[in-house]
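$ ./design --mode recover --in tokens.txt
reading tokens...
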């Protein structure tokens, strides 16, 4: 059997199990989607949003990319954000990084990852530059990367607050709250590192009029 065939087989078993527990499970899920949370996480296969938060399908709207970045020209992420905030009306947006993140580690090296990856990792190098003084003080490489993971999450939360999507929702509907979390691959625990309640003041340079 090919490895991907096993996935399809497991899927059949999973679906049967769900129906055995609750015959209306899929019917109910297919009719309505009202998640309270948008999750922006890392693509890393070891950080599955539902599993580590004990949530079910339908509870979290998910976007994932390498090192959970919020880039202001990323049409993919902004479309997800727009839909989650303006149509699903989520109450919370969570940016969840994780210790031991390969994307973060890669960005601290001088390795040329070629074309597109260099472009993507640049966003992380910029976070390093902003916090260079603090990070250069940390001599242990692993600790330095872990701190960069935390600072990166904080920076991405700021990037969310800089979008007119978030600012408009904050002004008109006093939601969503923004949460910056870091997941530990070694202990499975999530550590909150920053929270920005709806309406938190940001640098006026990034504020929009007339929302
Ligand atoms: Zn990662």
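writing sequence...
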């Amino acid at each position: 059997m090919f490895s991907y065939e096993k996935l399809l087989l497991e899927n059949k078993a999973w679906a049967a199990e769900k129906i055995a527990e609750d015959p209306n499970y899929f019917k109910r899920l297919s009719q309505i989607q009202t998640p309270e949370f948008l999750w922006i996480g890392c693509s890393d296969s070891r950080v599955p949003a539902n599993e580590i938060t004990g949530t079910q399908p339908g509870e979290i709207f998910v976007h994932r990319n390498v090192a959970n970045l919020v880039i202001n020209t990323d049409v993919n992420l902004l479309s997800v954000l727009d839909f989650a905030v303006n149509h699903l009306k989520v109450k919370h947006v969570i940016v969840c990084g994780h210790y031991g993140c390969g994307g973060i580690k890669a960005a601290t090296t001088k390795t040329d990852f070629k074309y597109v990856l260099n472009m993507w990792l640049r966003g992380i190098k910029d976070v390093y530059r902003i916090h260079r003084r603090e990070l250069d003080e940390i001599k242990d490489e692993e600790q330095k990367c872990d701190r960069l993971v935390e600072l990166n999450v904080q920076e991405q939360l700021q990037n969310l607050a800089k979008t007119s999507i978030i600012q408009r929702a904050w002004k008109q509907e006093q939601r969503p709250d923004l949460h910056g979390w870091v997941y530990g691959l070694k202990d499975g625990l999530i550590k909150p590192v920053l929270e920005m309640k709806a309406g938190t003041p940001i640098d006026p340079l990034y504020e929009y009029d007339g929302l």
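exit 0
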